[in-house]
Amino acid sequence: METRDIAGTSLAFDADxxxxxxxxxxxxxxxxxxxxxxxxxxxxxxxxxxxxxxKEYQENGDAPSIRKLTKQSGVDTKELYALFPKGxxxxxxxxxxxxKPKGCI
Length: 105
Description:
The protein is mostly helical and 105 residues long.
């Protein structure tokens, strides 16, 4: 497990680069993780996806796949890729403080 300083806090990350402890996550951490992913600012549309992912994780114990995101979050595939380029489900899960979704490479 790797430990890094993000937004002034020392945090542990798993082998995939996602937060190891879900309770360490907050909006400031999310913004810093987004910047690491090349997303300068989180918009309301980003937050729709991030909040949907966190809710799904709390209810089902797994981050949703890209298929579930596009079917149920209210954000279509094209916009999802625009918001989170190059692997939206994996990238959004990382920013949301969740483990990598099952099925993501």
